[in-house]
């Protein structure tokens, strides 16, 4: 079942084994050291934790339910499949857990301007939402390609008072949005807080975002014990940067009998080279402040990622996943665009739930595993977001025209 | 060789050094090589030779686009080192500092990079996203091969942090005169004198100043307080818009401005 993982990482240098670290320009070193200190103080402050809990409960709507997906389980014909329903959170995804934490921290640090990068737009919407709640200026960087495929979320961010800045450089997707957000931060370090949306970036972000997301796994643990009287055999989650997966995995890392399975986006298929599976098809390198697995060529240039899901379309992965992968504590598999689309439709029809395209990637592995483990087994799937934002992309993939009356 | 850098500052005899950046392989190897070879005669004392990278997080659009052109013409870290090697067949005095991001170097391997750089006649490197906290391994390799790992000090580097930033550095220190990316709005006159003096005192090395320097007038102002002036974006832009001759015209005017003042120092 894998080796014993150290759950007390990162070390003082922000390292998870050989991954992580702080690979940033000198201008950003002082602000990330300041952030590290401010976060450590906030984490230890009961008043901060009390505030966070209040907003997570009454504003976000936590805890999110753990739902027995009975018809899907019957369809799979084996283990019981439970859904951790993060898509029921305010704003429709797990992203808001982290935004609430980071923006409460930004307020505490006296920062007045919030910047964020977004791929599918879920992190952008969550950031814009919480910034609106606290009356903070919010700028969201989003790749021009993603702006086209995620129109509903772009409009939502604008309604929430955020400025959405289109990023045309590079591949005009999530990684380029992150480059642009880093450029903004390096220019406006004094008043600006960079709210990173996943468990990547320079230390302390991978640890901090994980801490804000691990409430998913903590709730899951007590909910499954209540419902089944035991821990699950496996937990499955999709992975782009890896925040929803790390959030649900982390509280189970020391439970050696619980398999942790991350699903990367295989795009058109790993063999085609058109995918976003950094662990399956990449190698270690340095990008966006951390050392981790990256899609890259033999000269160290970053390769474009490909996925139907904008939220998974990223050539890297959080450093703690790289660590869990290398020591063998978590397993990483992949699902293609087509497999995710098919699973999306199955889930819609059998359970009346439209999972986000991101979360849909975790479904095929879950169904397969349910059959493998067989009756008596228990699996938890993290339904990290809802699929309403994806209906235009899905309609296009299914060759259906739903544009009447809208600009989509 | 760190010696080539030290000799350069010594021979300037109190004048400020003119440090010019160009992107290796922009728009292709042959044209880029022409500019590189012509730089010393146009008045460049130290050459910063850019290594293109897909994700240049600390650069503005001008240098990012130059990197895209360079990569399109097949430029890699190895080919940039090879340009330096070719340059050395005609010039054994002008220091070359390669400048870029960590991943291509990480991919080559820190030791292999240091050995290849040394072999190619490179004198040092500036790795934008490799702060002191992360550069132990590369610094050790550079020490073995007598190469200078140039560190950056910035307006956010406070007095408590400065000693850590300059510790173990060789050649010179690069003071980034403003917070922001390369090619951003012009930095304000004045304001750098105290900073340069602090960095010089902490490091015991010459301090060159860059970011936001675009005109001979500004270069001259910087030269009053600093041991060198760095210009990058303006040269890359001139090269793209007006070709090698256009870039060299700009370089000559900037070099004259930087060299126009004598001052005490290194």
The average pLDDT score of chain B comes to 94
The CATH topology of chain B comes to: TIM Barrel
Radius of gyration of chain A: 20 Å
Q: Give the termini distance of chain B in whole angstroms.
A: 18 Å
Number of strands of chain A: 14
Quickly name the level 1 CATH class of chain B: Alpha Beta
- The percent range for helix content of chain B is 40-55%
What's the helix count of chain A?
17
Structural class of chain B: alpha/beta
> Any idea how many domains of chain B?
1
Q: What does this entry show, briefly?
A:
The complex is a heterodimer of chains A (408) and B (266). With 408 residues, chain A is of the alpha/beta class.
Can you tag this structure with a few keywords?
heterodimer, A: 408 residues, alpha/beta, 6-stranded mixed sheet, 4-stranded antiparallel sheet, 19% strand, globular, B: 266 residues, TIM Barrel, 9-stranded parallel sheet, 47% helix
Explain what the structure shows:
The complex is a heterodimer of chains A (408) and B (266). By secondary structure, chain A is an alpha/beta fold. Chain A has helices at 29-43, 46-60, 70-76, 95-108, 122-133, 144-149, 151-159, 174-187, 205-213, 215-228, 243-249, 278-281, 319-327, 337-351, 357-360, 363-373, 391-397, and strands at residues 15-16, 19-23, 66-68, 80-85, 113-118, 137-143, 163-167, 192-194, 234-239, 259-267, 283-287, 289-294, 330-336, 378-383. In chain A, the strands form 3 sheets. In chain A, strands 3-4-14-9-10-13 form a 6-stranded mixed beta sheet, with helices on both faces. A 4-stranded antiparallel beta sheet of chain A has the order 1-2-12-11. The N and C termini of chain A lie far apart (46 Å). Chain B has 266 residues and is of the alpha/beta class. The mean pLDDT of chain B is 94.
